[in-house]
Design a protein that fits this description.
Number of helices: 6
Order of helices and strands: HEHHEHHH
């Protein structure tokens, strides 16, 4: 944490993809980050957003494929839903 905070003034952008609240639990809440670097742009790429009923859930490509109905599009007609062999959502989302 101390090393990260020392490095932070050199950052322009911070991209994080932990579950909602993880950085806060590590003592790296937005106020702490901004004190270390007021010009910092923070992008929080969470599976289910920062608020709402699913905010604390972990998310990855297979979950979103199933929840969105995508697996029904890739399966055989009349057959069971089918996941892609490659976690495309994880790769393109960061």
């Amino acid at each position: 944490r101390a090393l990260f905070l020392r490095m932070l003034p050199d950052f322009d952008v911070l991209v994080e993809n932990f579950r909602t609240g993880t950085l806060d639990r590590w003592g790296l809440d937005i106020d702490t980050l901004r004190r270390a670097n007021p010009r910092l742009v923070v992008l929080r790429l969470t599976g289910f957003g920062q608020t709402g009923p699913y905010a604390q859930r972990a998310g990855f490509a297979r979950i979103f494929e199933a929840m969105s109905g995508f697996t029904n599009l890739t399966g055989e007609t009349g057959g069971a839903p089918l996941h892609m062999n490659y976690p495309m959502g994880d790769m393109v989302a960061g």
